[in-house]
Amino acid sequence: MIEETLDIVTKDGAMETFVCRPERGGPCPPVLLLMDAPGIREELRDMARRLGTVGYFVLLPNLYYRAGRDTVFGPNVLEEGSAERARMRAVRTKMTVPPVMADVTAMLAFVDRHKEAKPGPVGVHGYCMSGPYALAAAARYPDRIAAAASYYGTWLVSDAEESPHLSLGKVRGELYIACAEHDNLAPLPMVEELRTLFQRAGAAGEIELYPGVHHGFAFPERWCYDKPAAERHWERLLALYRRRLG
User: Fold this and answer.
1) What is the DSSP letter of 241?
2) Nearest-angstrom CA–CA distance, 88 and 175
3) What is the pLDDT of residues 60-109, one digit of tens each?
4) CA-to-CA distance for 67 and 65, rounded, in angstroms?
5) What predicted TM-score, i.e. pTM, was given to this entire model?
6) How far apart are CA 137 and CA 144, in angstroms?
7) Count of helix runs (H) and strand runs (E) in the chain
8) Positive/negative CA dihedral, 186, 187, 189, 192
9) pLDDT tens per residue across span 166-189
10) Where would I find the beta strands (DSSP E) of the chain?
């Protein structure tokens, strides 16, 4: 495995990004892995490495870079009332779709310049807060993003001007949307509404409900980690990328 952490220049500054790829067999299809709300940590780097070992050129950016280099949070970041949670929330609540799409633009430019990134289609997947970003990227770059996945993405149907459901009809690639049965940020009525809107938009792909699991089930260090569901998430993701990226 070849890995490095470097800065990708965006219109708003330098976005610290973990990049990994196989030692052999390049150039490799590029994949953008978009973080969840607790931010960059070794757990996410290990997930990027898993993709790298099976033949992908993976970018894992710190989407909080606009708030500074200290946007790395402690282990109690998800504990109610903790100082780390408050610090994270202060950054998270300022996140919107347009600046993240500018970051995606910068990442696509980066892979286009890198000799070890295979030219052509790109994949993107996001967890939690970044589920909507992955879907938005597929709509923003329909001729470039061939595969996009959202894992327990938050508020995929809302009254917001940037709600992901509004752009489903613009997507030309294949979508995979995984939802947890127990998720206050994407309750079951919202999932069913999204399913109806997905079909109405004629989007390619599927929405899959993971029964019996909670928001965050794919993260090995989370209290709600569910190994069978987590492995199913990998199976679905890798199959999607194999179909669309090679």
Assistant:
1) H
2) 29
3) 999 999 999 889 898 888 889 999 899 999 989 889 999 999 999 999 99
4) 5
5) 0.96
6) 9
7) 6, 8
8) positive
9) 999 999 999 999 999 999 999 999
10) 2-10, 13-21, 30-34, 57-61, 122-127, 145-151, 174-182, 204-214
